Amino acid sequence: MRRVAISSWATSRFAKDAKMSLLELACEPCAEILRRSGKEIDAVLFSSCATDQYSSAIISEMLGIYPKVSHRIDNLCNSGTNAVASAFSMIASGLCDTALVVGAEKADSPGSKLLWDITRGSFMFPVHWAAIFAKAHMRRHGTTEEQMASVSVKNHRNAAKNPLALFRKQVSLEEVMNSKKIADPIKLLDCSSPCDGASAVLLVSEEKAKKLDGPVWIKGIGQQTNSASFANATGDLTTVEAARRAARDAFEMSRTKPSQIDIAELHDAFTILEILAYEDLGFAKKGKGGRFVDQQEIAINTRGGIIGCGHPVGTTGVAQVAEVASQLAGKAGKRQVKGCKTGLVHNLAAAGSSATVIIMGA
After folding, report:
1. Does residue 39 belong to any structural domain of this protein?
2. pTM (2 decimals)?
3. I need a surface site. Which of 44, 66, 238, 275 has the fewest CB within 10 A?
């Protein structure tokens, strides 16, 4: 199996109304990558929950490229990292030498609505299952609303350094705690926000990567789908089982331990999910995630996370990968974490019913 690297990346400004069509939005970061890397692209994989037909081929034509392989990948919030995993597989197997992965979504994406899952009853909005996870963790482990609010404070602080983030204003603990309660105990500032946005990454074979200056290597990938419905997502409401299993496989494939991770992009669609991720990934012991928020060992959600950056559903996983690649290459500007060599991306979908974990190295 050939090694695979990320050679280039770009992300658009996330906004509530980008005044562009979905496909125009998708082309923006791709055009930036093509200007740097050229148009020799073997595969184009488009990550989106939008239902536009033949969209990957349309994007390819708009960009003036002629890939061998072109298709759309849809897996709700986990679409982006599924697309990266697919591109990795194509290159590792020898089917392709280069693969352009682009995620794009509009704020009104159909991926934000879970109307198909009858197991949620009348509680079809994601905030309802976030409240269930939060209450379970609070009851069993004593996690507090203040600890969850601290996640929002941290991620908004990081987003203030990111010119592409939807939210660039810092918030205080008091502001989070006093924000409107949406579904007890989840408040408005515990939540991410749907928005318009696009991000792209270019994956290349080992042979091509060796000709580049400082490629970022994909060292391990773990994926797990437990179900589509909330009813079968997890047997323990204080953990996301799919993420735990995906992390185990990613660490094994990369021959890496949680203690070796320098930087991580965690799926913080709600503050409780970041706390669960600390535990599911082995960064914190079970039940200690709430106390881990202010740790200094790992740089977490340096771009502002989903809470600070916004959540264009099919884009999120790609943007997470782009951020970690940028950090490992030492090209993150004001957000740059000194000396980071190993990074991790943690991406969930639909109440954690599926998960992807990707480990990358400089």
Report:
1. yes
2. 0.96
3. 66
